[in-house]
Amino acid sequence: MYAYFPSCNFTKASPQTSKKVRQYLADVHGIRTIGCCRPGHKKLSEGEIPLTICQSCSAIIRENTGVEDVSIFQFLNEDSRFPWPDYHGEEITLQDCWRAEGKHELHEAVRSILRKMNMKVVELEENRDKSRFCGVFRYNPMQEANIQIAPHYFVDHMEGKLEFHTPKEQQVLMEENGKRYDTERVAVYCNSCLRGLIQGKVNGIHVMDLMFPENV
What we know:
The protein is an alpha/beta fold.
């Protein structure tokens, strides 16, 4: 059985979509939502598989439980009962997340989901494991709370990978990044990536918001 961690950041950014996801998982699959990963990882029952929507949640749960999570996108991609909306062939750029490096099943699932919604995926040259984008995540020191709860990931794993920049420099970097996209909308599956796109004045949208549109 699975248990879902909805991500505090995603829930804050997309409260209605987050509610729809939790309700769908409960009604259709009988999957419970635990809540915030920080205290919530302790509530996992033996044998439960954590479903995550956030790269930080994934890292915190893996480091503190030793249990490998499954992306909600992987789960829903294989869901024969999911009511896929139709976007009528819209071309949309997919911005991969730097922190999803090595998560090939996630890369494939997100692309499959976009195709199932009748969208044409426009690939960037720096895609999948080649992506170096995660909004401004790499440009700031790691939060102390993250360091305390998952030092292997937020300290050891990040060593040599961060590039500190001032807020002004970060704004310039996000706006420069925004010039890479040719489509009207850019899809992401990461909270930090979405904030970075918006900061760079890009019309970004979370894949989960595409899956659970407002008018449905």
